């Protein structure tokens, strides 16, 4: 159901944790973007680093000096070496980075806050509230507002750092006033009506505590039992600069809301340190020791060098292996958000339809993701929703679906016991794509199996329905499975032997048919006599169909090694193998992405690749990447070229006709056209590009001959004719010969032209 | 369909005698035609045989504006 699919998409989106903060940021109660700061500093952009610090901190220079830096303690780098010196890098950004001029609109507020006591928390609350537009009156009994920080100046805290931070108060309505210690008692100000909220700084809290006056406060809101009085509470007695600053910030947020009369506690869950599930792969990183400053602080060069050690913690694991994600420069979380928007909101342009139709539904990302986030399932749900909403572009999958129906139609679909047998213990199900691309491998494999296995090896030619499953045409897919299951029953429920990893997967997953692969059978009965005695190295390319089937992957390796080959495991192999771009019908809906996927998959193979899916082999060959199909090693190699859509059809018809004739002694009448159609190579390429089949044009010419609907183009001298087949109108441009036609051009479109 | 796609498409092609219907042996002439796709229709004028009515869409038109509008409608 739509709502189930919908909910599942969002649920899967939660699994992608790429947007979780890195450990440094998560451990910082202010969530300063330290990854960004390090990135900026590493690029020498201290101005940007400074801007990021100013975004997160109200006293950035002072914090860069004083903070205990849990970010450094939490830093991922610690797992392999010295953590990044985040605080010193921040300090360098504040010293070397130019100010970013921002014009902030300051709301004018009439309310006034009282800050009792200086020190870090007193200053921070002052700045926070003043920046929000409140009038702030700060009383301190210490010599300066710096309070307990005074002794740290200048060694730990340089005067410039404090002055720099306090510069922002210049034009704000703040009054500092030194008063006698006895004037520092909150009781004096509770009822005088001048202050709408009072903050007791940690400095002052400690003074009051020494006098036995301990005021409790809420550990999050920092509100005391007296509603307009805010303070750290007992935590003020455990000195820590970061703690002090953070509590003052919490109090300032509460005071702001309190003075404005809005709810104090809503939306504050993300304050303070947070857990994070961001995964970061440390494989292959060679740790470098931290940069020690020659003086007492980093120079620009030192800061850049140290910042460059930052790992820029990210996950993106799955994207490293998927050309589809790389094409769109996105990761599952962002894809899922966009899919969701596309499926649920009326956008001016559903740009993302094509994106939803570009994932190969290959399942690789789920295997790679530490959280099992599965774009395959997201895509399946999304496509089902599109179809249900009548938003699936018909052009996306129609060609492939028609091809599936061709494979399971009268011109190809075939069910037979082995010649001379009334029963079948096994049945060979080579798969539609093997028939389409390597008909002679199919035939050789069948004859070999029939020869060497006892009990009868039947044959079923057809398509397992994967194309329907990829397109998420649920009913159509079920129909194909029903057809195959009926054929299996008709033959007496023999064990399937398939030569296609995707068929293997489909039958395993969606039917009760017992299925094994030709790979396993060969491992058991041994190599055929025709098998190569090879030497050298082959890079194994498992297919996405075999992703979850270790038994298949193992057998293929075993066979290669029995033939004498050494097998190289490329990056991302076995269950992590990338798709060749045929999966999910990517190649049909988005040829560009499909090709990028094929290239990515092929190019990670260092040597000639060993494939065992007919599509992988064909798509690698189309890109001139050296490859060989396992069945070629067993029964003879073909030249390295891709088949093309028209030949794929013809191959299926001819292998069936030839096998029925020669093995079963059945004559199949293949209707031949009564004209000769000559298609020059350049036109063949055009047809391939435009997905026009030779058989479409033969129909076109037959129809044109029947009703004599030719048109002469006087300008070029060519004849033209058209014919609508299904949802597509085809045109041919040609010349006539004595016994047929020479094609000059062909094109098609989906619109229907109707006379008024 | 947005007015933009309609306007982009709305057009007229006058064959000026370039094409001749072989069946009827007459030149195709500019004729009002409806182009239909995915619940949308566009009135246009295209070359058609005045006798048997067959309409001609040239390669330029097919791969140009027709394809463009098809894509736009599919992404609606
Ligand atoms: S592997 Fe991919 S899906 Fe999983 S968390 Fe990382 S980025 Fe997200
Ligand atoms: S390596 Fe960089 S991004 Fe990762 S936790 Fe450390 S400072 Fe943060
Ligand atoms: S193509 Fe495969 S790896 Fe890439 S997103 Fe889709 S299912 Fe995941
Ligand atoms: Zn006519």
Strand order of the largest sheet of chain B: 1-2
Describe the biggest sheet of chain B?
A: 2 strands, antiparallel
- How much of the polypeptide of chain B forms β-strand, as a percent range? 25-35%
Helix content of chain B: 25-40%
Fill in the CATH topology of chain B.
Answer: Ubiquitin-like (UB roll)
- 3D shape of chain A: elongated
CATH architecture of chain B: Roll
Main beta-sheet annotation of chain A: 5 strands, parallel
Strand content of chain A: 5-15%
The strand order across the widest sheet of chain A is 3-2-1-4-5
Terminal CA distance of chain B: 8 Å
Oligomer state equals heterodimer
Q: Which class of chain B in CATH terms? A: Alpha Beta
Q: What gross morphology of chain B would you assign?
A: elongated
Q: Which small compounds were modeled alongside the protein?
A: iron/sulfur cluster, zinc ion
Mean of all residue-level pLDDT scores of chain B: 86
Key phrases:
heterodimer, A: 756 residues, alpha/beta, FAD/NAD(P)-binding domain, 5 domains, five-stranded parallel sheet, five-stranded mixed sheet, 20 strands, elongated, B: 76 residues, alpha+beta, Ubiquitin-like (UB roll), two-stranded antiparallel ribbon, two-stranded antiparallel sheet, 4 strands, 30% helix, disordered N terminus, binds iron/sulfur cluster, binds zinc ion
């Amino acid at each position: 159901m739509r709502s189930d699919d919908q909910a599942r998409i969002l649920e899967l989106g939660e699994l992608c944790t790429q947007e979780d903060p890195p450990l440094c940021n998560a451990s910082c109660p202010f969530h300063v973007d330290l990854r960004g700061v390090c990135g900026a500093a590493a690029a020498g952009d201290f101005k940007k680093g400074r801007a990021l610090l100013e975004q997160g901190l109200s006293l950035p220079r002072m914090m860069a000096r004083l903070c205990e830096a849990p970010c450094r303690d939490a830093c991922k780098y610690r797992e392999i070496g010295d953590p990044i010196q985040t605080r010193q890098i921040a300090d360098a950004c504040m010293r070397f980075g130019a100010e970013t001029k921002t014009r902030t609109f300051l709301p004018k507020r009439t309310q006034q806050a009282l800050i009792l006591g200086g020190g870090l928390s007193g200053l921070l609350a002052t700045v926070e509230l003043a920046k929000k537009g409140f009038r702030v009156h700060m009383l301190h009994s210490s010599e300066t507002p710096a309070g307990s920080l005074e002794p740290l100046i200048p060694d730990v805290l340089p005067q410039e750092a404090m002055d720099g931070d306090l510069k922002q108060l210049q034009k704000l309505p703040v009054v500092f006033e030194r008063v006698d210690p006895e004037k520092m008692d909150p009781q004096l100000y509770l009822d005088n009506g001048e202050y709408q909220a009072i903050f007791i700084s940690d400095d002052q809290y400690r003074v009051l505590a020494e006098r036995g006056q301990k005021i409790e406060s809420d550990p999050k809101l920092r509100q005391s039992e007296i509603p307009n009085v805010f303070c750290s509470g007992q935590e003020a007695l455990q000195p820590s600069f970061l703690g002090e600053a953070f509590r003052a910030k919490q109090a300032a947020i509460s005071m702001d809301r309190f003075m404005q009369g809005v709810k104090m506690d809503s939306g504050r869950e993300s304050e303070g340190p947070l857990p994070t599930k961001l995964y970061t792969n440390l494989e292959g990183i060679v740790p470098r020791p931290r940069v020690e400053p020659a003086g007492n602080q980093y120079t620009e060069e030192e800061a850049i060098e140290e910042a460059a050690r930052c790992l820029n913690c990210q996950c993106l694991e799955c994207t490293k292996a998927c050309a589809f994600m790389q094409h769109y420069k996105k990761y599952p979380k962002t894809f899922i958000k966009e899919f969701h928007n596309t499926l649920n909101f009326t956008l001016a342009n559903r740009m993302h339809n094509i994106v939803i139709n570009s994932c190969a539904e290959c399942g690789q990302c789920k295997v790679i993701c530490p959280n099992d986030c599965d774009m395959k399932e997201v895509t399946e749900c999304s496509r089902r929703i599109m179809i249900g909403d009548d938003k699936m572009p018909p052009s996306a999958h129609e060609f492939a679906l028609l091809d599936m129906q061709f494979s399971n139609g009268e011109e190809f679909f075939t069910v037979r016991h082995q010649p001379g047998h009334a029963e079948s213990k096994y049945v060979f199900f080579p798969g539609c794509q093997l028939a389409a691309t390597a008909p002679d491998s199919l035939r050789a494999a069948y004859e070999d199996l029939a020869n060497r296995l006892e009990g009868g090896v039947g044959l079923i030619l057809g398509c397992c329905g994967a194309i329907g499953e990829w397109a998420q045409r649920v009913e159509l897919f079920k129909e194909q499975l029903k057809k195959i299951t009926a054929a299996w029953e008709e033959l007496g429920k023999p064990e399937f032997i398939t030569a296609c990893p995707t068929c293997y997967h489909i039958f395993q997953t969606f039917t009760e048919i017992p299925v094994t692969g030709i790979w396993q059978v060969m491992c058991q009965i041994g190599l055929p006599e025709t098998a190569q005695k090879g030497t050298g190295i082959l890079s194994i390319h498992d297919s996405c169909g075999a992703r979850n089937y270790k038994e298949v992957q193992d057998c293929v390796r075993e066979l290669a090694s029995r033939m004498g080959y050494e097998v190289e495991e490329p990056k991302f192999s076995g269950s992590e193998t990338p798709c060749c771009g045929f999966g999910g019908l990517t190649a049909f809906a988005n040829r560009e992405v499909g090709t990028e996927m094929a290239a990515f998959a092929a190019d990670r193979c260092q040597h000639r690749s060993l494939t065992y899916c007919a599509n992988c082999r064909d798509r690698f060959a189309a890109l001139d990447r050296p490859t060989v199909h396992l069945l070629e090693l067993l029964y003879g190699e073909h030249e390295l070229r891709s088949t093309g859509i028209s030949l794929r059809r013809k191959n299926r018809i001819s292998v069936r006709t030839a096998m029925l004739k020669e093995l079963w002694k059945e004559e199949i009448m293949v209707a031949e056209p009564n004209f000769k159609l000559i298609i020059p190579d350049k036109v063949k390429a055009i047809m391939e590009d435009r997905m026009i089949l030779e058989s479409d044009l033969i129909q076109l010419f037959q129809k044109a001959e029947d009703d004599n609907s030719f048109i002469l183009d006087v300008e070029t001298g060519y004849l033209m004719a058209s014919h609508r087949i299904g949802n597509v109108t085809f045109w041919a441009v040609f010349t006539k010969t004595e016994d047929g036609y020479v094609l000059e051009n062909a094109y098609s479109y989906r619109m229907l032209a109707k006379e008024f | 369909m947005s007015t933009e796609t309609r306007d982009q498409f709305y057009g007229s092609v006058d064959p000026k005698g370039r094409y001749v219907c072989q069946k009827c042996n007459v030149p195709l002439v500019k004729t009002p035609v409806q182009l239909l796709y995915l619940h949308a229709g566009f009135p246009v004028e295209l070359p058609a045989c005045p006798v048997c009515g067959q309409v001609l869409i040239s390669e330029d038109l097919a791969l140009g504006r027709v394809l463009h509008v098809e894509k736009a409608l599919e992404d609606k």
